[in-house]
Design goal:
Elements: E1 5-9, H1 13-24, E2 31-35, H2 38-47, E3 53-56, H3 67-75, E4 81-85, H4 90-98, E5 103-106, H5 111-122, H6 140-149, H7 154-164, H8 169-176, H9 180-194, H10 199-210
Parallel strand pairs: 1-2, 1-3, 3-4, 4-5
């Protein structure tokens, strides 16, 4: 395996250290970039457009649940992203893959299992624990919702995530350094794409996807 650039995005320094140890055990003299919040993770990808892999926690400062994955997946479509989370129930794992993750690794996994997951994704496979590989659900309503969420732009995904955190338009505008009018336009587009009539309904739709991942 040639030299790799791997981004570790997790707000817990101790777990970033564990992931760094796992990456260090891969072949080659690899470059490791750490990020402790979503904005830092996004900037890391911007600064390293040829990064080989991102290890992404589901819940970090700046995002909640799957909104970070959706935004990164929309903006950096070629970057393989592996979700690393303490919330490792089968439904959460499946949602991650359905929303574009290339793999899912439980935080309870051992170092060798984490390395095996990374190797599989780096070789072009999708990695999910054995517990997720059977009994998949086939909810047509959920599949339709996921397809609609995939139509959101990166900025719309960020705005939806912030709506889910209870932020007002003015607060979102401040956080994203844009005008309040721009946020209102994004909200209108989100409602249209999700086929709902209000911010509250949009947040409810997001909560259906996030499920227990909100507390990952």
């Amino acid at each position: 395996m040639s030299q790799l650039t791997i981004i570790i995005a997790d707000d817990h320094p101790l777990f970033r250290g564990a992931l760094r140890q796992a990456v260090t055990g891969l072949d080659g003299d690899n470059t490791i970039i750490e990020a402790g919040d979503f904005d830092a993770a996004r900037k890391a990808v911007e600064n390293q457009p040829d990064a080989d892999l991102m290890l992404l926690d589901l819940a970090m400062p700046g995002v909640s649940g799957f909104s970070g994955l959706m935004a990164l997946r929309a903006e950096f479509s070629s970057l393989p992203i592996v979700i690393v989370s303490a919330t490792d129930d089968p439904a959460t794992m499946r949602r991650a893959i359905e929303l574009g993750a290339s793999g899912f690794i439980s935080k309870s996994s051992g170092i060798e299992d984490i390395r095996a997951g990374m190797r599989a994704v780096l070789e072009g496979d999708v990695w999910i624990p054995a517990s997720c590989q059977s009994g998949q659900d086939h909810d047509p309503n959920m599949a339709d919702l996921i397809n609609r969420l995939r139509t959101l732009t990166p900025q719309q995904s960020r705005v939806l995530g912030m709506l889910g955190e209870g932020l007002l338009n003015k607060q979102i505008a401040y956080e994203l350094s844009v005008s309040e009018a721009t946020i209102k336009a994004h909200v209108s587009a989100i409602l249209l794409k999700l086929k709902v009539d209000s911010r509250t309904q949009a947040v409810i739709q997001l909560s259906k996807i996030n499920m227990s991942a909100l507390v990952a």
